[in-house]
Design brief:
The protein is mostly helical. It is built from seven helices and two strands, in the order E-H-H-H-E-H-H-H-H. The two termini are about 30 Å apart.
């Protein structure tokens, strides 16, 4: 049917059980993230049940090249808040760490999150922030 990071509401509504409310929530959540890097992220869309996520997976592909990536080294509070797996406290702690850190290497910045996020959330963050070649 299409690619999930470029699907519009009419394409999403073709799936049984997805109407205007769910299709708008999916697009709003996708926009907040800058795109889906893992199809399982659909499960974080408010109210979207597992059976609907499974239906979407049957009809849509995923192209992570369409995801808008950020640079941890330069990201501000507003940019970081778009990721639902980063709490406001963690963002504040990170910005303070980054400001005090004499070494702003990507390794030290990613290690900050690696120690504080669960494996799946860290994986998602690394996909969102992976430097482009």
């Amino acid at each position: 049917m299409g690619e999930i990071n470029s699907a519009d509401t009419s394409q999403l509504k073709r799936i049984q059980g997805i109407g205007s409310v769910y299709s708008n929530r999916i697009i709003k959540f996708r926009k907040r993230l800058g795109g889906f890097v893992d199809i399982e992220q659909l499960g974080a869309v408010y109210g979207l049940k597992e059976n609907l996520v499974d239906s979407i997976k049957k009809y849509f592909t995923l192209d992570i090249l369409k995801v808008k990536k950020i640079q941890l080294k330069d990201a501000n509070s507003y940019e970081l808040k778009r990721y639902p797996f980063l709490s406001e406290n963690l963002i504040d702690e990170y910005l303070e760490f980054r400001a005090k850190s004499s070494s702003e290497s990507m390794d030290s910045l990613t290690n900050f999150f690696k120690k504080r996020l669960n494996k799946y959330d860290f994986y998602l963050l690394s996909l969102y922030t992976k430097p482009e070649l």
